[in-house]
Amino acid sequence: MSEVMIALDAPAAAPQRARAAAGKIAGAGGPLLSVQGITLRFGGITALDGVSFDMERQSVLGLIGPNGAGKTSLFNCLSRLYLYSEGRIVFDGQPLEDHPQYRMAHLGIGRTFQNLALFNSMSVLDNIKVGRHCRTRKGFLSHALQLPGVAAEERESHRRAEELVDFLDLGAVSSRLVGELPFGTRKRVELGRALASDPGLLLLDEPAAGLNHEEVHDLDRLIQQIRSQLRIGILLVEHHMSLVMGVSDKVVALNFGQKIAEGSPSEVQRHPAVVEAYLGSAPA
Ligand SMILES: Nc1ncnc2c1ncn2[C@@H]1O[C@H](COP(=O)(O)OP(=O)(O)OP(=O)(O)O)[C@@H](O)[C@H]1O
């Protein structure tokens, strides 16, 4: 895995500065993300029941819980795919409820998917460039007519995508079609596509699923580099316990839609409710 450093003026910080300049970061000193009493129901099923927690800036938060605990439901609430009936989610000082789902990337929330969402017949570099779309100002017509500013914007998107190709150690496959690449490499391309939107918060949905031991080790280091070098907060839904416990600053555990524990990895790992949720009985 590459140790390439992104320039000090990390592009990831740019949208945050822009939002701050626009006076939108009401809670600039507060948490990056505040989940407040989220309740989500599907008919008679309560998938989330009053879940609350805060997440600090530039931190990694691991969201764990047994099957059906509500992790994906919460993840989908954070990206506005699911609309909750009660509660509030505040990102970077802004209530998410004020914004439609398609604005999430503009707002600074990037995500990956359990089932990769890539264009298999496009190159690695072009797939990553697709992620820049929300940071470009010129519309379709400007591009079609090659109006002034389009070329400069295109050059900037290209430059940023190349930086991410280096950061993710994808240089050797940059011009290859994504569909030809092994699963682990495609997962890194998807991460690149999400990073290309310069998010302040990156939502990773089971990023270790399907990876081999060495790839999980690389992912661990990459998550730490994303936090420290790109200064991006990461919310991680993951079943791979050693990855979550090794990389998270804070862990939130759910069971049957309720938060059962919150704290440092070692606190949550030892918590009786967590042990019971995973093992099916309380520790002796
Ligand atoms: N679209 C949906 N329609 C109906 N019920 C749903 C839907 N999505 C989730 N649920 C229900 O909500 C509850 C929480 O599911 P969720 O997928 O969020 O759990 P999870 O913790 O992500 O589980 P897993 O680890 O197996 O992915 C479950 O009872 C599930 O059956």
TrEMBL record:
The keyword Nucleus does not apply. It comes from the Bacteria. InterPro entries: AAA+_ATPase (IPR003593), ABC_AA/LPS_Transport (IPR051120), ABC_transporter-like_ATP-bd (IPR003439), BCA_ABC_TP_C (IPR032823), P-loop_NTPase (IPR027417). Keywords: ATP-binding, Cell membrane, Membrane, Nucleotide-binding, Transport. PROSITE patterns: ABC_TRANSPORTER_2 (PS50893). Residues 33-281 form the ABC transporter domain. GO terms for molecular function: ATP binding. This is ABC transporter ATP-binding protein. It comes from Variovorax humicola. The lineage of its organism: Bacteria, Pseudomonadati, Pseudomonadota, Betaproteobacteria, Burkholderiales.
